[in-house]
Structure formats: C-alpha cells, structure tokens
C-alpha cells in the first residue's frame, strides 16, 4: 500500500507511546517533572533512542545533547526535512508540551515504515535539549546554539540552581555527543505543538495554522542595596534590594494588565534575594520578567516601560538597578510557503483550521533563522499548560498528527 | 585591692579578645559570617569555653546549646546574676553585635578575678544559641526555649535553608548538652549590646539606658496560585503567587514610609517562590515581613494594615494568602529597679547617659519573662549593623563595659 491522501497515522500506537513517556519523570498527579539533563531526562532519552532504532533510524547526538534520528531518502545527498520539538518539561509540567512534537514525528516515521514508503529526501526527527529553561537558563538553549545564537562553551557553562552546569550534566547522563552543533543544510523544519492557549479548544477548531510569533521581550534585572538591621535602621537610610525587586515585579504585572484588553501579557517570573532573611535588609536581588504582545510595536512600548520601571523601582528603594541581559523574539518568522502548504494539507484532510500566532517560545523560532520553518498547533483543554492539569485527548491530537505527516512527506517528496 | 567605685575593666584585654573573635568566621572585609551552629560557630564556642575555663568558670551546656559559665558566689545557693548575649552573627554581620555582650561579661569576670573579689551571689555568663535567626528561624530561638516560649522538640526540628535541622547541627558540632533548658531561678539578667541605631553616636552620649522595647510584629505569609505558561495564559486567568508576594512586600514598604516620620519601620525581609523560573507562573510563594513602632498602639495599627494587605495582595493576583505564623514583642518589659540601678552606676562613673528604647530583637526580651532583666547600650558608628561596616571603637565600648561590671557586681553583692 503506497502513501496516499488517505494515509493516516496509527492513533492508538501514538497514544500508547505518549502514555509510556508519561511514566518517566512523574510530577504532580498526572503531570511530569522531567527537567533537562536530569535522571528522568536521561531515562526518556534512552527510551526514545531505542524507539528510533527499532524504527530503523540512525542516531546522531551533537555536542549540546540534541538527538537526531534519520530515515534515509531515495536521494540521501539532499538536505533533510526535520521534524521535532523537546522531551524535557517544566518542574510542574504536563505530558504533551513538546512531547507531542517529538513523538508525533516518530509516529509519522512509523506510519511511513508501515507503508514501506521511502521519501525522496531524508527525514529526521529531533529532540532539542533544554527547551523549557526550567533547569538551565535561557530556554531553547540547544536550538539556539544549533542556530548560531549561542556559543558552545557558553551553553556548556550555563549553571543550574542545583549547582551543576549544563556541560557537566550532559556528560553525566551520557548525552554529550560528538557531532558538531548546526552548520549543515536543512530543507525545512516542522514543529507540531499543543497550542498552550485556549483559542482552538474554545472554538473546537481542529488545527491551528501558526502564522507568526507573538513579540516577546525578556529582562534579567539585578538590584544592589545594602544590608542593615530590620529593626533600628530608619526607613530613610534603607537600601533594600528585595523591595526594589518587588516594586519592579508589581510594575511589570501592572503593565500586563494595561495591555490585557488587546491580548498583551507581562510576567513576573522569578526573583531571588540575599541574604533574604528575617531581621535583615537584603543587599542584592535578581528578577526575571517578560512582556508579550501580538503587535511588535506595542511589545516595544511595553518593553520600554519595563526598562523605565527598573530605574524607578531601584530609586524608590534607594538601590541601583540594571538590566544585565535581554532576550527577544517574534514577528513573521515562519516560511510563507510552508504555512500555505500546511493549510492546503489540513483542508484536503477535511479538518477545520484557524490562523493564529504562537504566544509561547519554541525551538522553531531559532530554526526559522537557519531554514524554512513552520508550526502546527493542536487544541488542548482550556489552554492550560506548564501545569499538571495540561490535558488533550487523542481526538484533539489526531488532526495535527495527520497534518504533520502529510506536510512533511509532501515536502520530503518534492 | 578590693572591688570599689574606682574599679575599671581592662580595656586592652577586652579589645584583644574582640579581635581574636573577629578572626573566627570571617565574612566580607572586616565583618563576620558566623551563622548559628556552623563550623565557625563551633570554633568560637570552643575558644569561648577555653577562655571561661582559664578564668576558672564552670561550664554547663543545655539541650539547645546555650553555654553557661559560672563563677561561684560566697553563698552559692543563691540564684545567680546572669550576663550575656550571643556569639552568632548574620551572614553579612559585624564583629560587635551580640559579641560585646558575651565578651564584655567575660571581661567583667576577669576583672573580678584580677581583684580576687568574690561576690555574694554566683555570677554566670551566657552565650545564647541562634539569636540572629540567620540560619534557623525564628531568631532568639534558644533564649525563647529557655523562657518557655518554644518547646524543645520544636526547636530541634527547626530547618535551615541548607537542609540540616537545628538539632542535627547541634549534635554535629558537639554542643548538644544535657542540662535542662531553663526552669531554674535567676536573680537578674543583664545584656550589654551595641545600640544598632544612630542615636548615641549622633549625640556623642556614652551609655544608653534601655527603658523599653519597640513594639514589633512579624508575619510569615504564604500565597497559593497556579502554574501556567508565561506566554499564552491571558492576564485574567493568571494566579501568580510571586506577584501576590511582591504586592505584599511593596505594601509593607509603603506602610513603613507612612510611619517613618514618627520612627516607624516596616521591613520586607524575605521571599521565596516556586517554581520561580523564566517561562512559568509560580503557584507558591512565602514572605516574611515585620512592622515596628515605639508606640504599641501605632504598631498595632501598622500590623492591622499588614494583615489586610495580605488579603488584598492575594486577591489582586488571583491567589489565596494567609498569615501562617506571627510573632510580636515590645513594651515596658524591663525591670524598673534594674534600669534605675544602671542609671545610678553610669552617673556615678561619670558617663553621659540617655534613655532610649531598644528597636532590634534581643534575648533579653525573652529573659524578661522569667527574671528581672535590663539592657545597656553602647554607641556604634552611624548605627550601622547587620553589615560588615558595623564599627565601634574601644572608647565607644568602655563606658558600657564598666557600667555592666558595676551594675552586675552591685546586684550580685546584694
């Protein structure tokens, strides 16, 4: 039986693969806590590699731990079509975020194997290391390195809160590969992902066509003050870095609310202080926050407000404050031809579709810098994610899986 | 030579003892980082015990690690006069806070030894465990236990940020004694301490007569929200516990400023959140804050505002919030006769004096619950404390040392 317009993935096989994955690195009830380069991450990597080998794929691991599983094409000299996402999760993560993109790609390959269909171009699956950034900052570390945004040594030196570095942990779990990171030609990159937002679920739309990325700007901020006794030191002599950071986080939250009516968001995500103890005024604090908006110009205004709030918050607490690292992404980064092809395939398969932006960060954002890239979204219940209550049914996921299969094969058979 | 009104401490001997202490547990330049029950705390305890034995004192260690060093009286059946404070420091502490009270008491004993003067009542020096609360919360843990405010088992179970418990660390450093905690009669408790405020230094007054304690109220607060993705989750669906805690800390700081003109203070002291990571909304946060005012009624109003701010801050972030532990102290807790005696001795010695309240927490607050207690303050530069820049000269300390000597001997010879 040849690959045809009536070919569909094996939904039960895909679902049992998801369920097996959900047993590795269990978090709060039903969820996952599979932090990058942890023992649980090693365990799912080992199982994933075994699945890929059983599917006849050739495994390559690069020097930041990205796993590539390759299926030969009729012309193996052509640049491959790449599909994938990430198998790591947040500390209180779900069983679908990222994982659907990797295991959905595996299901597509298994379907091709069932049919004995060999594509013109090679096809590869990828599992990117540390997409979440839940253990090592920044997120999307390894796809960023693949795309040339981050230096290899810098990535290896990223610290975790538990003291080990990215490079040390990569070696410890046995996934410090020897393949160079990036630098090779790719035909295209597809990433299937749960929407992580409520739109598709609310509208009961089956497939999300991702047209562009929300504009997002992140800020790592540091405040410096001076320690003092929480008792006798008069208010006017205090330089409490914890207060400076708290004032910034409140300002950031207020900025988010100011743009909530147009879908803007601002997140007070992280704060640490020292000594951070009862009885003493803290002399040091760090905060991480971000702003996001569909309109790049509005996102720029929000970002400007955050920058100003750093100085104001510091001054009100008698401290100094500075943004010591910034990141940003967003805009019309995806390939227009791939977007059109995804829409055509989805409609040919009879699914309802909707154009929408991606609001979260994804490895596809970095991949769009080095090859044509596109994303396909599936619905998830209420848009809940980064939470053990993240949910999707096999029926939620089936349309996206089939669109990924047909779009990738269509591309690989060009 | 008998003890007389012309007797004075040996200032050079005292100063060299302070300098020796300042070599143990060095922190930032010139300061100390001698956290309770750490290796550095063990080291100063060992040295202190050796000094006491050299002075002919009998050592007793109780089950929370308090060290008592006893000098017999002519009638050893009488309740002893106790003098002391604490040898532990903040993470960025100075070399005088607490230490002057313990080593000043030692100097008083050494002076009596020089003269061969035996007091009517026994005199004891005490070093209280974990006054600072910089490693184990709450502060003044072991004097609180001595005074019956805290149960022994509860104290032993206090966790540190580095995972070890109070009891485990007490055993590890060899200071889990077998003497019962408290429960014996004391004649009086004297505590000499640097002011930790700017008043004496600014006025060039030599001795502070501590008339009462600032009214202080502390609040341990917990907020619960829900994790969510920092990207797609709309502002109106968020329940960010970190935002709730930040809003509380800002409200607390504002309360402090509202009462700054009458010497009120409010401190945002500590905050922790989980997962506290870029890319995710935190579902849990804890904060510690306190308010302090010289007027107990005003302190009560400030405390009431904090209680209301907990609910308001939680609600604005879509979270729940509750105060899960409170503490408070303050008021006219010191013994009026001892205060009068201290004033008389200071004036007889020719020192300038000033009545003033104590604004920080001290072990003397708990001791005032079980026996007559009083405090003597010495100036320190600019009132800077809980900071490596805490400074005092030997001339700053000399008057307080002599007042302690004379007041304690006066009491012990009754």
Automatic annotation (TrEMBL), chains A, B:
It comes from the Bacteria. Its cofactor is Zn(2+). Keywords: Hydrolase, Metal-binding, Zinc. GO terms for molecular function: hydrolase activity, acting on carbon-nitrogen (but not peptide) bonds, in linear amidines; metal ion binding. Zn(2+) 2 binds at residues 97, 132, 386. Binds 2 Zn(2+) ions per subunit. Zn(2+) 1 binds at residues 86, 97, 193. Belongs to the peptidase M20 family. This is Zn-dependent hydrolase. It comes from Microvirga tunisiensis.
């Amino acid at each position: 039986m040849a690959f045809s317009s009536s070919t569909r993935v094996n939904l039960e096989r895909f679902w049992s693969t998801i369920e097996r994955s959900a047993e590795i690195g269990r978090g709060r009830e039903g969820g996952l806590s599979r932090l990058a380069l942890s023992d649980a991450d090693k365990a799912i990597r080992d199982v994933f590699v075994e699945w890929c080998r059983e599917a006849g794929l050739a495994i390559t691991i690069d020097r930041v731990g990205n796993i590539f599983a390759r299926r030969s094409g009729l012309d193996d000299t052509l640049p491959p079509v790449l599909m994938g996402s990430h198998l790591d999760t947040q500390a209180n993560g779900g069983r679908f975020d990222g994982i659907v993109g990797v295991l959905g790609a595996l299901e597509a390959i298994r379907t091709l194997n069932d049919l004995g269909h060999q594509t013109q171009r090679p096809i590869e699956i990828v599992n990117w290391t540390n997409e979440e950034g839940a253990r090592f900052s920044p997120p999307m570390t390894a796809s960023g390195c693949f795309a040339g945004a981050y230096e290899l040594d810098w990535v290896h030196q990223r610290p975790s809160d538990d003291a080990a570095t990215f490079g040390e942990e990569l070696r410890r779990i046995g996934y410090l590969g020897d393949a160079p990171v990036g630098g090779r030609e790719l035909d295209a990159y597809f990433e299937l992902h749960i929407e992580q937002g409520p739109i598709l679920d609310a509208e009961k739309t089956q497939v999300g066509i991702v047209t562009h990325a929300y504009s997002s700007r992140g800020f790592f901020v540091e405040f410096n003050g001076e320690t003092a006794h929480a008792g006798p030191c008069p208010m006017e002599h205090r330089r409490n870095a914890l207060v400076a950071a708290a004032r910034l986080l409140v300002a950031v939250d207020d900025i988010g609310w100011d743009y909530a009516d147009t879908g803007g968001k601002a997140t007070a995500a992280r704060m640490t202080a020292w000594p951070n103890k009862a009885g003493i005024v803290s002399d040091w604090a760090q905060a991480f926050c971000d702003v996001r908006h569909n309109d790049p110009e509005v996102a720029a205004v929000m970002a400007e407000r955050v920058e100003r709030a750093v100085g104001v918050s510091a001054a009100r607490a008698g401290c100094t404050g500075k943004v010591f690292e910034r990141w940003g992404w967003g805009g019309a980064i995806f390939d227009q031809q791939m977007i059109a092809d995804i829409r055509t395939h989805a409609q040919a398969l009879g699914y309802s579709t909707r154009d929408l932006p991606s609001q979260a960060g994804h490895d596809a954002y970095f991949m769009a810098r080095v090859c044509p890239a596109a994303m396909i979204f599936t619905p998830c219940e209420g848009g809940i994610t980064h939470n053990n209550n993240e949910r999707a049914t096999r029926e939620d996921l089936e349309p996206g899986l089939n669109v990924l299969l047909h779009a990738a094969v269509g591309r690989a058979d060009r």
